[in-house]
Structures
1.
Amino acid sequence: MASGAFEELQTGEFGPATFDLLRRLVHQVRRASGFPPPEGHTVWSDDAAYDVISAMLSQEGAGQRFVTVCFAQAADEASLERLFLTSIKNFLIDEAKKTPRGKLRRRIARLMNEDTAYRKSSGSPPRWALADHAEEAVWQGDLDDLIAQAARVTGVGITRWNHSGPTPKQTVHALKTILLCVLQYAQGAVREEDLAKVLEARFELLAPARFTALYADEGTVAELVDQHAATAAPDPTGVDGVAEDIWQRLSPNERLLLPYLDEDAHHAAQLLEIRQTHAVAVLSNLKTTLRTALSADSDPHAVIAALLRRCGDAPS
């Protein structure tokens, strides 16, 4: 029996020793670089590693050839491991770039790379900090804290999200505003993957907007809707225009919470299927937006009623 993959491949066999080496190296690469598990897996496991290996071996135009090429260039077991390691890392990089989050990572990395206010830290996995942060400073906190901090930022939103071509100016401004706020809070370098997750949560970029027909509970809010509906007529005061302007500024999660403004964060977290710390920030941001928008001359009760009607009209 061969004592290692190199010896096994010398016999012309792709057997258990080679497969086990590839499995161990997949785990080594994903631990060092923070790659997400392959499609169909929520966490890394041996099964996930086997799926990566199977995908590498079944690549059109390459497939098992990468094993042969690595073996041909290797002089011993150690050099074979290094060659396999490079091949696995390159494969996982290519796969990550195909995912929606991978595309988001590339976009924000390009934006930060073009701006002297940001600095990319050396080493792997890729991390970003503000240029005036200490070189050795690294964020060691909880991702939920960064997500909550981003959710507290008001006055920015994304109304246009293109999947190719130049990023719209307003979108660039919104992304950079959140990145700046989060990195100032972190006071150190944050993993690029985590920054993408923060932006994904703040702007709900990677998932289609979820709309559910919501109905106000019994009480003041429901009465407002009924009263306004009963007296609805062409509106010379522009209430619908104000409501539409507010509606466009709200994220899908904020729209879902509109009929539940009096509920606590625990209820909001259950409704939105997110962590409670994130729900606290979403609820707070929604109330701040409404408070600011309703400080104008228009009738706040009528505007709220118009907004709640939009909740009921949204497609399920």
2.
Amino acid sequence: MCRATDAPQAFALIVTARPSPAQPFPAHHFPRPGANPHMDSPIATVMLPLALAVIMFGLGLSLTADDFRRVRRHPRAVVIALVCQALLLPAVCFGLVIAFGLSPELAVGMMLLAASPGGTTANLFSHLFGGDVALNVTLTAINAVVAVVTLPIIANLALLHFEPGIGEDGLGLQFGKVLQVFALVLVPVVIGLIVRRRSEAFARRMDRPVRNLSVVVLVAVIVGAVLAERENIVDYLVDAGPVALLFCVLSLATGYFVPRWARVDKRQAIACSMEIGVHNSAVAMTLAISVLGSVSLAVPAAVYGVLAYPVAALAGLMMTRLGNRLPVEEAVRAG
């Protein structure tokens, strides 16, 4: 059930209509409000949504009804993880973007990232570092459903608060765009679930081809991205890197220590940490580029995609070396 197909998503956003020679983007700055670069490239309008659809379809192929029923067996871990994911992390992210004084475009982009569900790569990291992979799969499945509601809400609140000046009407995610989010995130998962329910053997046979197709499509996007905007990659890292890095660290730490303080066992806490800390940046980038039509909103997710995997690996190593005793038990012993 472990997936690594969303790992190479980091620079997929940067396939964009390049700025005209008369109005280049200044170094370390992004378009002013109202100067929104729309994504007219076929790679951005077709390939990136296709890549996300294939990833989410592959997730659906890996799920069963038991993955949803498992909530009843581990209610505490699931509820804590979902509260952290849907409420705590967006609040933390909001505080970070205010503290760092990010531009409206980057601030909204960070909020889109915070609202995005965990990626399927979280399952892989959980497996590598001794987490409860079954719980990861359950959280990934539920998060994909919850994100259909929370993503539009957080996106609209962020757009209203920071006012990045994107789009023609400036009204953010209206009903039609909310339907696009639904179609991009949930519909492929449901199709994958239906396929697996009708023929589990076929779903198993399709597992590797779908995974490989995801990689091929994403690699194609990355190649086009790097060739199109190779001069800007360093600037992107400089502008959004510190906030994205700190948010990644805080996400992983929150996902581990909050469940531990709530007396969730270590394996489940590692699973929660990876699910909460390894966001599906492909969702945030697709929402920014293909739905909202702004490359600047997608920059934080791309930078995060570069930083998240080594940070998650380091965090996994540290968590495996932490003691198995619950913090509450340590406090009792100390008392």
